[in-house]
Design a protein that fits this description.
This protein is mostly helical. The protein has 9 helices and no strands. The model has no long low-confidence stretch (mean pLDDT about 85).
Length: about 190
């Protein structure tokens, strides 16, 4: 019964797999941005592993994630956009109903880069040659456009990260960080 419900918005099993793959890959694309933001915001945090050349690897990873999402095609990308918008509406409704009077603020300004990212990826997918696109961007050139677009968005996302003071406050006041810091202190 639940399986049938989950397949309702998607016509086939392949469409469901493409949707899931694209959503997962797009979420992986946030990791490189977070890595560089945290390196800038809290450089003194204990890190058991430091990635050499993190800027280069982060930019490359973001480009690859965007390319993989693009390859799923317009048919999938427009469904992802709808799911993101529906999720945003549900989150705001939930927050409005449950968070009244609490001082926890959402930092939308740090996430504003997502708007041109989602809109740009949608437009390029619509004009591209994969999954129902118009094929106005010929094969090969669409990859160049995606890589250049990804690098621009990557730069924008890294610049939009929370200011150091706000990020440090959120990190150090988090109960999970406190627990982790205490366990690190007891092992050293």
């Amino acid at each position: 019964m639940i399986g049938v419900f989950l397949l309702t918005p998607l016509p086939t099993w392949q469409a469901l797999v493409a949707f899931q793959s694209s959503a997962i890959v797009l979420s992986y694309g946030l990791g490189p941005i977070c890595l560089l933001a945290l390196r800038k915001q809290a450089p003194e945090l204990h890190r058991p592993f430091i990635l050499p050349g993190s800027r280069l690897f982060s930019a490359l990873t973001f480009c690859v994630c965007t390319l993989i999402a693009y390859w799923t095609g317009w048919g999938t990308i427009h469904q992802i956009v709808f799911a993101i918008l529906a999720g945003l509406v549900l989150m705001l409704m939930y927050r409005g109903l449950t968070q009244r009077g609490k001082s926890y603020a959402l930092e939308f300004t740090a996430a504003l880069w997502l708007i041109p990212y989602i809109l740009g990826l949608s437009l390029i997918s619509y004009l591209g040659s994969f999954g129902g696109g118009l094929n106005l961007l010929p094969f090969g050139w669409d990859f160049v456009v995606i890589v250049l677009f990804s690098l621009g968005i990557f730069w924008l996302a890294c610049r939009a990260a929370l200011p150091k003071e706000k990020a440090r406050q959120a990190i150090y006041e988090d109960p999970e960080y406190q627990l982790h810091a205490e366990s690190l202190a007891s092992t050293h």
